[in-house]
Amino acid sequence: MKNSGKGQKKMTFWADETGEFGVKQIAVTVAVIVIIGMIVTVVRTNLGTWVGEIWSLFMKQIQDLIS
């Protein structure tokens, strides 16, 4: 029996893709996810404070322009 060309191409594709991810690549991916999570946490916890400070700054600037 002969293998069809299409089936052989699929097998070659999967054979080429196996073992592509190493320990270092997985470690880097996990580190990036952790860093992004930390950034999101910091922004989320401080967002109210930052908005309040900016609002106060704008209101002060408006008051200075009016008076």
From TrEMBL:
Keywords of this entry: Membrane, Transmembrane, Transmembrane helix
Highest rank taxon of the organism: Bacteria
Transmembrane segments: 21-43
Protein name in the entry: Uncharacterized protein
Species whose genome carries this gene: Paenibacillus mangrovi
